[in-house]
From TrEMBL:
Pfam families: EXS. It comes from the Eukaryota. Signal peptide: none annotated. It is a multi-pass membrane protein. Keywords: Membrane, Transmembrane, Transmembrane helix. One of its GO terms (cellular component) is membrane. This is EXS domain-containing protein. Residues 97-304 form the EXS domain. Residues 1-22 are annotated as: Disordered. It is found in: Membrane. The chain crosses the membrane at residues 57-78, 98-121, 142-166, 178-198. InterPro entries: EXS_C.
Length: 315
């Protein structure tokens, strides 16, 4: 009776907390857990920021890799050229220049176009309205990104061409420019929503309107066609490059004969040279049909004269 364990009743006020006290305890636990979660969430960005490097550091690292890649390409290309005989070296360099010169010039043009857009942006010029672009048009940063990839891919293919040819892998060397041209063509017509689909198709539609001016000429049509007139040499080199690829004359000297199908006397050369001027000629005629302005006829006469001059001075 006196030494046994005393078990108080479960309803004793000394053991059972009141409803108010239980509510306070639950509220304290909830606040404690909420505070802990807030501390964890607040510390998460700090931890992520500590792990991720700064954008400036990433940019410097990319620039370092870019220059390292450029040095490696130059070193491999130079060593490959030095392996060849002196008599073969000039012909080989001329051929390599022919295949890769058009795409290198286009790459330079894309870089400079990005510079133009940057100047427009700094000058607060609304070039999107001038060129009739939608809100999804590419900015100068995206243009430079495209130019960077072109700068990497084209010289890499040229370096592989030089290396493989100098080491006796003629068939593999001949496939390098073919693969490059096919890749560029596939990227332009790729139907999936990657690689700036809307911009690629806008360019293709503009080129289609330039070749077939069956509608009113817009400023973008005129502007791109005017750029093409400055790239007549690119068109000429493209014609000879594609001709040699089609006739399997890459990495050979079959084209060296002037009267061969892809030689310097080919009729395709002057045709490729005058195509941009013919496009502008038909654009001017279309503008005269729409506006009846006589100045467009004078412009048409100018481009007609350029076309006949190219045919007259062609070999």
């Amino acid at each position: 009776m006196f030494g046994g364990q005393v078990i108080p009743p479960s309803k004793s006020p000394h053991l059972r907390k009141s409803d108010k006290e239980e509510g306070n305890v639950e509220m304290e636990g909830l606040l404690h857990s909420t505070g802990s979660n807030d501390l964890k969430i607040a510390s998460l960005p700090m931890t992520t920021a500590a792990i991720m490097p700064s954008p400036i550091l990433l940019w410097r690292f990319k620039v370092l890799l870019f220059f390292l890649w450029g040095f490696i390409c130059c070193k491999i290309g130079w060593d490959s050229v030095m392996r060849m005989s002196v008599n073969l070296r000039d012909l080989f360099l001329y051929e390599a220049f022919l295949y890769y010169n058009p795409l290198l010039l286009v790459t330079m043009m894309v870089w400079l176009w990005g510079v133009n857009l940057w100047v427009f942006a700094q000058s607060t010029i609304s070039y999107a309205k001038i060129f009739d672009l939608d809100q999804n048009h590419l900015t100068h940063r995206e243009i430079w990104k495209v130019a960077t990839w072109m700068t990497i891919i084209v010289p890499t293919s040229m370096t592989a061409y030089l290396y493989l040819y100098s080491h006796g892998e003629v068939s593999l060397a001949a496939s390098q420019p073919v693969l490059l041209y096919c890749a560029v063509s596939l990227v332009l017509i790729f139907p999936f929503d990657i690689f700036y689909l809307s911009s690629r198709y806008y360019l293709l539609r503009t080129l289609w309107r330039i070749v077939f001016p069956l509608q009113a000429i817009t400023f973008a049509d005129f502007f791109v066609a005017d750029i093409l007139t400055s790239m007549s040499k690119v068109f000429s080199d493209l014609e000879r490059s594609v001709c040699r690829m089609v006739h399997r004359q890459v990495a050979t000297i079959a084209w060296f004969e002037a009267d061969s199908v892809c030689g310097s006397h080919s009729i395709g050369i002057p045709i490729a040279l005058v195509l941009p001027y013919i496009f502008r000629l038909f654009q001017c005629l279309r503008q005269y049909k729409d506006t009846k302005e006589k100045t467009t006829l004078f412009n048409a006469l100018k481009y007609l004269d350029c076309s006949t001059s190219d045919f007259s001075f062609s070999p």
